[in-house]
Amino acid sequence: MNYATQFYSWIQGIVSHYLQIYVFAKNPELAARYGNLIVLMVTLTVIYALLEVFESFKKVLRYIILMGWFILVLAIVFNYLNRH
């Protein structure tokens, strides 16, 4: 977890630095505040997007599993009927 915290702080520093240079040159303390909020919002957005991707993958996987079981049962039934 220490690496994640270091990475988060590093990204926050980069964002704050560029905000200070390009947006808040006259008021650098706002750059640090908004840099922290921007990194937090980006992190939450990425987590939300990943959860959405995995949620949609769960739906697709559910249909694949259902089709697999259906095909397996059909194969067993057809094999049984073919013997008699």
From TrEMBL:
Keywords from the named record: Membrane, Transmembrane, Transmembrane helix
Regions crossing the membrane: 7-25, 31-51, 63-81
Name of this protein: Uncharacterized protein
Species in which this protein is naturally found: Ignicoccus pacificus DSM 13166
